[in-house]
Amino acid sequence: MKKKLSKIIILVVIFIFCLYGIKKVAGKFGIHILEKSNIETNYEHEWDNISKKDKKIIKKAISLAKEKEKLEYVWGGKGEIMTEERLDKLIGYYGEKQYPLDKKDYIGKQAFDCSGLVYWVYEEASGVNIGYSTTQQQENLEKYKVKGDLQPGDLIFTTRHVVMYIGDGKIVQSKNKFKYPEGGIHEQPIGWYAKGVAYRPIDYINERNNKK
Asked: Where in the numbering of this chain does the NlpC/P60 domain appear (predicted)?
């Protein structure tokens, strides 16, 4: 009896999917089905609506971020070369638990936390300070929230964290305090970060430059 009932349920489900369409039924249950061709097309045209001037800044910022891959995450790091004196100050301010690696893993290298990385690359690429911390950055970029599709260079914020979208469905970030590759700076697929709040720093940069 149970087997017969199971078969009937399966047949009913198949009938519903055939009648209304897989995507429509899946949507009712909060399941999003991606179409490969649409994804590839979106990636292919990600740069289409970006001006030549803006492309130059964004591509430089992305290139700078990618160059820093494999560096360790440093809480409070904003792009400075880490010295023992500076590291001791940070430890005194934020606490030793935020710096779990050996001192040699930090000293003599450029230091970035998540907001420090995106601050530094945009400062270098454009000369505009978008903010040192995630809080400052979100406040500065509030008017430039992304309402449509992501474009390369956009910043995505989650709780107390920020990543940069670099195109082709990927982000770069200074992830966490654990040793690379678990932590540190690296590229990865956008994954669940796509659900974060995105802002467009290039629009903020253009506004600031127009006021000079």
From this structure: 51-203
Name the pTM for this structure. Answer: 0.80
Residue 49 has pLDDT above 50, yes or no: yes
Task: Read off the pLDDT of residues 155-206 as tens digits, 9 standing for 90 and up.
Answer: 999 999 999 999 999 999 999 999 999 999 999 999 999 999 999 999 999 9
The CA radius of gyration of the chain, in Å to the nearest whole number, is: 22
Number of H-type helices and E-type strands within the chain: 8, 7
| CB atoms near residue 147 (< 10 Å) | 7
Cα distance between residue 155 and residue 12, in whole Å: 45
Rounded to whole angstroms, how far apart are CA atoms 172 and 167?
10
Q: What is the DSSP letter of 72?
A: P
User: Widest CA span of the chain, in angstroms?
Assistant: 79
Q: Rounded CA gap, 46 and 44, in Å? A: 6
Model pLDDT for residues 80-89, shown as the tens digit of each residue: 999 999 999 9
Q: What is the 3-state secondary structure (H, E, C) of 7-41?
A: HHHHHHHHHHHHHHCHHHHHHHCCCCCCCHHHHHH
Domains (ranges, CATH) in the chain? 49-211 (3.90.1720.10)
